[in-house]
Known about the structure:
Layout: H1 5-13, E1 18-22, E2 33-36, E3 39-49, H2 56-61, H3 67-72, E4 82-91, H4 94-100, H5 106-122, H6 129-138, H7 144-150, H8 155-167, E5 171-173, E6 178-180, H9 182-190
Antiparallel strand pairs: 1-4, 2-3, 3-4, 5-6
Amino acid sequence: MILPQKVAQGVADGTVTVAFRRWAAPRVLEGSEFHTVSGMVRISSITTVDPDGITEDDARRAGAASVAEALAALRGAPGQPVYRIGLEWVGEDPRVALSSDDDLADDTIAEIAQSLERLDTRGSHGPWTRTILQLVADNPGRRAPDLAESLGRETQPFKRDVRKLKNLGLTHSLDVGYRISPRGAAYLAATAPDDA
């Protein structure tokens, strides 16, 4: 589930406690957690609601200025059910602290290398992790489509791969493009080929 930045910040500060979505079927599970720009959020509940029953208070608790704004934000076919999703802020995204750690012990470097090797092995286009890490390090803030094109890849699969690296604390997403994290830079430096 994706929350706009304003809504994610509202969940973090407690002013937003619900979201409304129009889906053919629920796309989230009660108790599941997900990453937002403001940290981790948990789905505390999910119920179907009559959109005509959404109140001004409901709209405010969803981060909207009015019922009309909350209803206008609903996507999907008008005949699909509307879900009221309870939201709770869990805490900071653990990837933030992880990505800031640039004091890598040998065993940590080995763990990262093992994780990257697994990603390389599972990939459909051969080893890719070091290439993308280096590309991101060399091109901070460059648009994802441009980076993908430079490798002869489609944009969406490329972005999924960068997200896998982000989950390991090795990259950061920017408003446009990416940058290498301190952890990612330390890993690249520690594992640089001798001729580099």
